[in-house]
Amino acid sequence: MTMDLSTCSVDTSLSLFDLNINPLMYSDRLNSTMNGTETSKMTVSETQQANVLAAELNKMVEENKKLSEMLMVMLQNYNTLRNHMMELISRNKNADSSNSSKGMQVATPPKKRKLENDNNNTTTTGGYAESSSSEEGYSKQKPNTSIEESKIKISTVYAKADPSDNRLVVKDGYQWRKYGQKVTRDNPSPRAYFKCSFAPTCLVKKKVQRSVEDQSVLVATYEGEHNHPHPSQTDAILAGSNVRGQPNIGSVPCLTSINSSGPTITLDLTQPGLSHHQDIGAHKSNSDEITKSPVFYQFLIEQMASNLSKDPTFKSALATAISGRYFQQSLGNTKY
DNA sequence: CGGCTTTGACCAGCGC
DNA sequence: GCGCTGGTCAAAGCCG
After folding, report:
1. What is the domain-level CATH number for residue A171?
2. Are A175 and A183 contacting, i.e. CB atoms less than 8 angstroms apart?
3. Contact positions of strand B to protein Cβ (< 7 A)
4. Per the record's keyword annotation, is Cell membrane included, yes or no (predicted)?
5. Which nucleotide's C1' is closest to A180 (Cα)?
6. Nearest CA to A134 among A120, A149, A148, A146?
7. What is the pLDDT of residues A218-257, one digit of tens each?
8. Sign of the four-CA dihedral A3, A6, A12, A17
């Protein structure tokens, strides 16, 4: 929780230098074209073409500006959510400390065998939350467990669900097979038990139960670590790309859309996958570390590339730029 | 027909 | 040892 996304130097600006295009080259050519220094060599159609190029260049600059603005808005939203999350965490900590200091155990019955959903490292992300209990947290539950067992990763995910929807389903992109359901003592709503069915060797389990406080919130507890890539990644690999439907790289939930004002990248913090940090990396327990991870950067880059590649204006601009580059080279060759 | 869900039965851990 | 509880198994049913 030490790193702010806003401090991340993710430069999303599409520099023409990055495209190996020298803007001066264009401006020089355009200026000389306008000044008529090359008019003797250029036909009317070439002048029109230059105008089109200039217009497209301006369009690209505008879209670049829009993208930067959208990113800024996204960062602002993220900061707002993060502040809200920190507030909730501090509230929880205060509540826990006050309860423990007073010796209150109203919500936790003394007979409880296992300390489930130990909300120690709980984080919330705008109506969506996760927690991750560390290895020692799990070893507390089973003091005599082996070292191997004590390394089982436990993470808890809170997902907003439709109260009218009785299914205990938390969509995280993985394939789960339900193998049991049980009504527990401390919660009137049943708890569903799931096993990862994507890979037979994957021993990851998931427990889903409605929150006692808020029935509209599903609490999913993940045990273990997937030993296979995310199904969507596999799909993308099999398909050769990630272009079908809404691209979902890894499990980082991201809805992408291209509207009239340009491509929009929307980090959907309400989707389960983001909090399921097992997917994102080495079990980071908060979104700060997620954003710190190289996977996140890779995801951002791939999303941008994906959106840009879908944008016809970008394609045409890129094609124009490349052809312009060749044109420039061919001019240089003819000069020497 | 294969995969998934449902659900009652069974097992193991824990406290008394 | 007994009862309580959480977790798992497996047969039956459902569904595309």
Report:
1. 2.20.25.80
2. no
3. 3-9, 13-16
4. no
5. C8
6. A120
7. 888 888 877 777 766 555 544 443 333 333 333 333 333 3
8. negative
In a domain, A182, yes or no: yes
pLDDT in tens, A191-218: 888 888 777 777 788 888 888 777 778 8
Q: If residue A183 lies in a helix (H) or strand (E), which one and from where to where?
A: strand A176-183
Structural domain of A217: 154-229
CA distance A209 to A246: 28
- What's the number of domains chain A is made of? 1
Q: Can you tell me which residue has its alpha carbon closest to the C1' of nucleotide B4?
A: A177
Q: In the numeric block, which tokens belong to residue A314? A: 């970008």
Residue A71: is its pLDDT beyond 50?
A: yes
Nucleotide closest to residue A175 (CA–C1') = B4
0.90 surpassed by pTM:
no
Q: 3-class DSSP state for residue A89?
A: helix
Tell me: the pLDDT tens digits for A47-70? 888 888 888 888 888 887 877 777
Is residue A199 included in any domain, yes or no? Answer: yes
pLDDT at position A111 over 60: no
Helix axes A294-310 and A312-335, enclosed angle (nearest 10): 80
With CA of A111 and C1' of each nucleotide, the nearest comes out as B15
Q: What is the structure's pLDDT at A84?
A: 66
Give me the residues near strand C, CB below 7 A: A 111-114, 116, 179-180, 182-186, 191, 193, 205, 207
Q: In what order do the strands lie in the sheet with A129-133?
A: A122-124, A129-133, A154-160, A217-223, A205-210, A190-196, A176-183
